[in-house]
Amino acid sequence: MPDEVRVLAATGMLGTGFSEASLDLAMARAPHVIGCDAGSTDPGPFYLGSGQAQASRAATTRDLRLMLRAGRAAGIPVLVGSAGTAGGDPHLAFTRDLVEQIACEEGLHFRLALIHAELDRAFLKERLRQRRIHPLNPAPAFGEATVDRATRFVGQMGAEPFMHALEGGADVVVAGRSSDTSIYAAYPLLRGCAPGPVWHAAKILECGAASVAQRLYPDALLAWLHDTDFVVEPPNPAMRCTPNSVVAHTLYENADPFRLHEPAGMLDTRAAEYVAISDRAVRVTGSRFVAANRYTVRIEGAEYVGHRYAVIAGVRDPVVLRQHDRFLAGLRETIDHKVRASLGLEIDRDYRLVFRVYGKNGTMGALEPENSIAGHEVGVVLEVIARTAEEARAAITVAWHTGLHHPVPEWEGLISNWAFPYSPPELDGGPVYRFCVNHVVELDDPLEAFRIEYVDVGQPALATV
Amino acid sequence: MPKLWELAKLVRAKNAGPFVLTFDIVFGDAATYEQVKRSGVITRELFARVYHVDRDDVLFFEHDRVLAFKASIPRPVSSGDLDDGDVFGGQQHGPLVDLEIPLADPTQT
Fold first, then answer.
1. Which residues of chain A have pLDDT under 70?
2. Does the beta-carbon distance from A44 to B92 stay under 8 Å?
3. What does residue A409 show for φ and ψ, rounded to 5 degrees?
4. In this predicted model, what pLDDT tens digit does every residue of A386-400 receive, in sequence order?
5. What is the distance in angstroms between the Cα of A229 and the nearest Cα belonging to chain B?
6. A133 touches chain B (CB under 8 A)
């Protein structure tokens, strides 16, 4: 292996930004590769289901442009994983479009590898029949019916497809859904670095500057990988890594702070030692990677549930607030009756009616231990989820109008109980999706499910072969 | 009796993937962490009780290196599903913040 491999994480999430000055300072430390994660399941199932990206074109372009410029100027690879939030084919196409546009505007020429991560239905059904799909805990039921029903599936690729693309001469890799760490592990593994330090460094790099003592804003992080250790340091002089900040980061978003499962095995940080080598840099030793006896990738899938309309309503009348549970129970019955009469839709069969009561249990729902209204007002979010946008809008219009004038025994005459901040009161929440799988699938080969496409970007047409 | 937020430097919740919630309670000094540990309040059973899950479904860690308790539980519904009210899982630690922690008075021992 080489004496040292230097890996730069531009930021924790493509499109959330980083300081341009930090990138310049990082480039002065001569990294061998620039990586960036562009996705997550954190913002929920909508992005995987709809094919849309969370970050805007403008914000993604800004970050990508700086990374591509820096990478091409230094002649080092730029790797982007989990493109477009969810890493499906539309997300890959979105990111490819931006890369090509930037290349054109900046006069850049390079070989782009696009790694597809969508899993096709036939493949999943075959693996189901072979009993080579295994549930994680907890997992919804997952069978051939789910495979048919879902809108889209992706697999979280490991480091191998990135490594293969680099070996195939890619200067820039844009990958679909990837394990966050694979983006950063690929290059050092290809150079022969020891897997323990590689995967542990990758785990810390994947959130960018999140492992510093006080992250002021999303920013870059550098790692220096050696045979038996690695060092992390933020290039931004206003931030610093301390042993405590680096260890504490292993808590974040992980169910288990000591063991991290990757397609090829498990990172074990139980014996890791963290030592400050300056007031801003930390050396980590003792990281172990235990190879798995079977190669598995995590499946993510989203199924369409319906179309949502929502209404926000304020309630300030103490008479209504004192009987609010009863008020909503009676209202539900009246809405059920009126929607059936005027639209022919059956509650809980054709549509769902949801009340979220902020000021009572809107945040925690059934888990809320303080299940009462203590304040002087509540915010009600009324939702209808129906099969189509048309049906949802029809039902919510009946619902909010019914709620507005729903009677209480204390007041005589027509009353208006709901304060709507908007006209129209209803907001189009768009299509609603649900994560429908939490399983891993066995692969015969780490590349098996991940097709790689090469594109010569910015080359004059005559020069392409 | 001090409350948890007065003793900890961080109490937080967050998704660990769309199907798991994870909680971190981190302390700034070893003495406080050890006292809270000895109080026996922060346990696997606490999370099972507050979040209505089976004790066996709670992953629980005492992370002495970072002076932290960590617990992970299955989400009642997956992130963004119809009955979910917290897509990122970031506000589910609320009931832990004001927990009363009986500390042994070191001057009395």
1. 1, 460-465
2. no
3. -60, -30
4. 999 999 999 999 999
5. 19
6. no
Whether B56 contacts chain A with CB within 8 A: no
**pLDDT confidence of residue A252:** 85
Report d(CA A440, CA A343) in Å as an integer.
43
Q: How far apart are CA A35 and CA A206, in angstroms?
A: 9
Q: How far apart are the first and last CA of chain A?
A: 34
Q: Measure in Å the smallest separation between the Cα of A135 and chain B Cα atoms.
A: 12
How far does B104 lie from chain A, in Å, by closest CA? 27
* Cα torsion angle, B66, B68, B72, B76, sign: negative
**Euclidean distance between CA atoms A433 and A90, whole angstroms:** 16
Q: Which of A182, A169, A136, A143 is nearest to A37 (CA)?
A: A182
Q: What ipTM was assigned to the predicted interfaces of this complex?
A: 0.92
Q: What share of chain A is helix, strand, coil (3-state, %, to 5)?
A: 30, 30, 40
CA quadruple A64, A65, A66, A71: dihedral sign:
positive
* Residue B24 identity (one-letter amino acid): D
End-to-end CA distance of chain B: 17
Reply yes or no on whether the pLDDT at B109 is more than 80.
no
In whole angstroms, give the CA distance from residue A412 to residue A56: 51
